Protein 1
Amino acid sequence: MPDLRRLDDQDFPAFTTGQAAELLGVQVAFLRSLDTAAVVSPERSTGGHRRYSRRQLEQAARLRELFDQGHTLQAAARIAGLEDELTAAQEEIGALRAELDRRTGPSA
């Protein structure tokens, strides 16, 4: 019996290129260009077909939005990467502040 819980996994490569393109409202060629540029690298099925995860679809959608705003694909990938780094840094700062408050008590 198949394990359908894997479909809840954001990183499970459940979508074919055609399905991904349809969900995102993009051409298959756009998804291929992301793979060629190594900014979204889908897994491959045993037959060599691209398979995308939900996380990769979200990334492709972000890149498409930036691309539509006039950025080159490489610039869009850099912007998305910097946004991810900023979010991670903000989360780390929040966790460090919470730890500091826990150890010293909240500041007045």
Protein 2
Amino acid sequence: MVVLKKIKAATLMETLVATVLIVVIFMVSTFLLNSLFNATVKNNTNAVRTHISELVYLSVHDKLTIPYDDEFENWYISIEKVDKKLIFEAQHKETNKTIRVEQYENYNGQ
């Protein structure tokens, strides 16, 4: 017959401490990931860059009147002619972040 060895069991206090440590680590990691995702979403400029590309296309094909002002989501977009360049500028209303694209007026896509 097999003799069973006595195994030491964890006390209730040790179990509670381990549970609290796991919960605290989970909470800290959740807050960290949340702040990273918020920063990524806040700094995402893909939509406004796509809109500026559309405006460049329209200006090349003479579908826009210059000077041009527009609002796109939380961005204020303006197009001005300086010398022989068209300057596309987008400024975020809340963060004042600016995106600037310069395009020669006689650009034909080549």
Protein 3
Amino acid sequence: MSEALINWFMVTLGGKVGKEFILFLISMVPILELRGGLLAAGPAFLNVELAKAVPICVIGNLVPIPFILLLITKIFDWMKGTKRLKPMVEKLEKKAMSKSDKIEKYEFWGLVLFVGIPLPGTGAWTGSLIAALLGIRFRKAFPAVVIGVCLAAFIMSVISYGIIGGIFG
């Protein structure tokens, strides 16, 4: 699914905007986030220089995070007040909280690792949602997410530019 979304961005926006803007947008989108951005940036897809791609993807991934940490619980509370949106919000909350045990137990470092280790269902969006639902304060959650995104950037750079780049580059 991630590869299909990356391809959609490249086909839809390719030639209309620069590669860097495509990476920035991919990195902002839930599910894809920085991981998808750095995969798209690598030699197998857009072939953007690593030193240029990493900061673009990190910043793109971090742009939505303060809004999630500060506003998502208020938005969810409002959405739960509507008949149509309540089931969707409850499903999202349930799914996010099903992954919350390590974050709840280890808080800061649990959040860093949850965001930083590139596994399905992890990342800055989900980590921030869980942190907000657990009531972790912004001044503790945001730095943990930033460190996690930087860890993910390192890991994904090795995968995208080292391993995949070695095969396709």
